[in-house]
Sequence to fold (340 residues):
Amino acid sequence: MHPAFGPKVNRAIVGIIAQKEKRTILFIVSAKTDQQPSAHQPPRLRLSLRQLEVFVATARVGSTRGAADRVARSQSAASAALADLESSLGVLLFDRVGRRLLLNENGRALLPKAASLIDQAVELEHLFSGAHAAPLRLAASLTIGEYLLPGLLASWKLAYPTHTVQLMIGNTAEVIDAVVGFDADLGFIEGTQTHPRLIVRPWLTDELVIVAAAAHMLAGRAVSMRQLREATWALREPGSGTREASDLWLLERVGPLKVEFELTSPEAIKRLVAAGAALGCLAREVVAQELAQGTLVELETSLPRATRRLSIVINRDKHVGRDIARFMRHCTQLHSPARG
Fold:
C-alpha cells in the first residue's frame, strides 16, 4: 500500500512506465468510504445571511446604494450580493423602476422570512459576546410617543443600561406602515386602524376632551351642540388616531364641524387654542399640564365620555426576540386609573 493513502480511501492507480526516462506517472481517483454521495442527503445551502441582509436593507430603502450604507458595504458588493441571491433563487425579487428597486410578488413573499432570519442571527451574535444588544426600534403615534413612552423609556434604560432605543414618532398610519415594512420592531397606535399583517395587542385606554382658551366665550358654561357646530376648530390631520377618534365622537353627535386648522402637531394645536383662535379636541394626557395651569379649560357639554384604545402592534412574521419580549412586558407595567 502506498504510504500516502489511509485504509479508508478507494483508489485507482494507473501506472505508465516510460522505459527510457524511467518515470512513473500516477493517475489517482479517490473518495472516502464514509462520505459517499447519497440521494437522501439534502442539498447544500445556496443562500447566505449576508445576501439576505442586503436584500432586507434594499427592500427598506429602495436602492442598493442606500442598502450598502445600512450594512456597511460598498455599493458594488451590495449589488453583487443581491444579484447572487436572485440567481440562487432563480427569480427576480424587485421591479427596476428607474433607479428605484420596488419589491415584486417574489420579494414580498421573501421579506418577512428573511427579516426574521436576520433578527435571529443578530440575537445569536450577541448571545455569548457580552456586546451591546442591537437597538430596539420603536414607532409610536404622537400622543403616545411624546407623552406616554418617555417615562417608560427612562425606566427601561435604568433597568437595562447597555440597551439602546430608536424611536420614530408619526401618526398612526405612519406607525402601521413602519411595522408592516419591518422598519420598526414594535408599534404603538391609537384607535382602530390596523393591517392584515399585524397582531394588535390592547394596551391602555385614554380619553378625548374638548378644550378652549380660558378666556374663550364658551368657557365656564354649558355648551350646546349648536354652539359646537358653529365654533371654529383646530384638529389633528386625517390619518392620525386622534382625528379618527374625534371624528367618530363628534360628527355623529354634533354634525359637520368648521375645521379651519388641521395640524400634525398636538403642541401647535394647544398654542392655537390657548390663543383663542379655535376649539381643540385632544387626549386628556396631552393637555393635562395646560388644564392644571389654567391656560386651557375643558368645555362642559352633554356629550358622553370619549374613550379609545391604545394598542401595541407587531408584524405577524416578526421574530419576537428576548429584548422585544422584555420591553413589551415592561410596557404592561404602566397602569393608572386615568389611563386604563
The chain has a mean pLDDT of 84. DSSP finds twelve helices and 13 strands in the chain.
